[in-house]
Amino acid sequence: MTLLFCSTTDRSDRWLSELDARLPGLEVRVWPEMGDPADIEMALVWKPPHGLLATLPNLKLIVSLGAGVESLLLDPTLPEVPLVRMVSEGLTVDMAGYVALQVLRWHRLLDEYKALQQAGRWEPLDPCPASEVKVGILGMGELGMASAKTLLSMDYRVLGWSRTPKTLPGVESFSGPDGLAAMLGQCNMLVCLLPLTAETRGLLNRKLFAALPKGAVVVNAARGGHLVEEDLLEALESGHIAGASLDVFAEEPLPAGHPFWTHPKVHVTPHVAAVTHPSRSAAVVAEAITAFREGRPLPNLVDRSQGY
Ligand code: NDP
């Protein structure tokens, strides 16, 4: 079986050596050097050009190098073959760490202390205890659950919203549109870890911000398409939202001159909250390929009808 590797951001040389160590003998071709498209039965991809996968007549499996698959599903020619997404311990640990970092940054007043440092002032501030800070997580899947557990271990109060109700000790679970409305009014911080689907696109908008308590902080580590950027700027301007940590943007790289670059209440990172490293994630890809070859159930299969 031949695998096509297609990504303009992931290092093909590293992936090839990691896969070779786990699946010796697997033939891998690196796009755009495809050879005969009819040879290719599996594809390992991140944002392949729309239409590319439809040119592979014998394609039987697509494995996404990313956890989010919205860019693949937006390709109207995407072949109707099983689509497996990235779920790896490394990615999960990284995201939980990013969420903890942002929650701590805002709660423990790091920006204020930096300003005090620059003014040469020794001035202890008085943030409330973590047990009085309510963090709402939108999306209680692989990444949301892990982030919730990390926050709980630091004594934060955690609320979680998902499509279907969840049971996680210590987490107040909400689901569906009514659940969202009930949760938002309580959240001092709101973390978005949703997949980008027709239902979740634009969810972080003026109406949602208005439903949060005054002074809430917003963290978006999911996709830029979740956020209506001008609505956030307006909510920051009015002071209703106290700050935002943003890792993902409508347009990436974030364009020069975008207001987020210089906004004093916005922290920008360049889509690095959780990154798929070949050394940490090749085992997951190898397992998907092996399961496929052996006819076993595929792990982390995308439900195309739900869009994630
Ligand atoms: P999962 O599929 O494991 O979890 C998705 C969660 O969102 C589930 O709890 C699901 O509910 C919930 N959900 C989906 N649709 C809705 C809806 N309409 N209403 C309420 N809840 C909904 O995804 P992951 O946790 O693995 O990843 C989440 C996203 O994080 C990815 O799609 C990707 O976009 C982003 N990401 C960002 C990275 C970065 O570096 N910034 C890195 C990796 C991922 P239910 O449990 O009921 O199905």
TrEMBL record:
The keyword Transmembrane helix does not apply. It comes from the Bacteria. Residues 103-273 form the D-isomer specific 2-hydroxyacid dehydrogenase NAD-binding domain. It holds the Pfam family 2-Hacid_dh_C. Keywords: NAD, Oxidoreductase. This is 2-hydroxyacid dehydrogenase.
